[in-house]
Amino acid sequence: MGRKWNNIKEKKASKDKSTSRIYAKFGREIYVAAKQGEPNPDSNQALKFVLERAKTYSVPKHIIDRAIEKAKGGGEENFDELRYEGFGPSGSMVIVDTLTNNVNRTAADVRMTYGKNGGNMGTTGSCSYMFDYTAVLGVEDKTVDEIIELMMEEELDVRDVVDEDGAVIIYAEPDQFHAVQEALKTIGVETFTVTELAMLPQNEVTLTGDDLEQFEKLIDALDELEDVQNVYHNVDLGDA
């Protein structure tokens, strides 16, 4: 497994300038999921997944309701999901997932941000082959042994189950996400600390000095872009 999920989440949270950025991202994602299918999580798995993620970030109900109502009203905005891959200082790898209603604007913004912050945008597939698309679920008040036993009973061959800072994190194949989640609910899990589908690096690199400072500026700048939903990378930020 690559780096620990808790490290990723903590760094993401620390880099967000305000919760308004998180809410805006989720509002857009909820709107797109609700518009692409039924605006009802009971019959729309994509929407259900986004709403479950939103809970782990404490997104307010009014943000969720507004996005769903906008979709119900036949909002005319159309968004494309696009991925950009590139490199930061010393060959570090950065993947940027976007949701945009203006492809040309987003491509230009991402390319310019890479360039202004010591990086350069690569071609499709230039970085993603070094990452694994992974389902990540986190629970509290359970032990690793309990979860492993449950996975065996349910015949779910997950990638890993580990204790990370007091929470049990389950790493699984993306198509196992809902099966793992439903299995956890059968043993009384009602609240999840993590419910994500993420790109996790197969290996990490360590940067120091000016390279590390430049890299953090690059990640901050990319995350600040309006159309960016997620930024993944392969750098061990440690306690930086």
Automatic annotation (TrEMBL):
Residue ranges of every copy of the TACO1/YebC-like second and third domain listed in the record: 80-235
Cell compartment(s), UniProt: Cytoplasm
UniProt cross-references to Pfam families, sorted A to Z: TACO1_YebC_N, Transcrip_reg
One Gene Ontology biological process: regulation of DNA-templated transcription
Highest taxon, organism lineage: Bacteria
Gene Ontology, cellular component aspect: cytosol
Principal place of residence: cytoplasm
Protein name stated in the entry: Probable transcriptional regulatory protein DES38_11634
Any one GO molecular-function label of the UniProt entry: DNA binding
Protein source organism: Streptohalobacillus salinus
PANTHER family per UniProt: TRANSLATIONAL ACTIVATOR OF CYTOCHROME C OXIDASE 1
Lineage: Bacteria, Bacillati, Bacillota, Bacilli, Bacillales
Domain TACO1/YebC-like N-terminal, first and last residues per copy: 3-74
SUPFAM superfamilies per record: YebC-like (SSF75625)
Assigned keywords, A-Z: Cytoplasm, DNA-binding, Transcription, Transcription regulation
Similarity comment: Belongs to the TACO1 family. YeeN subfamily.
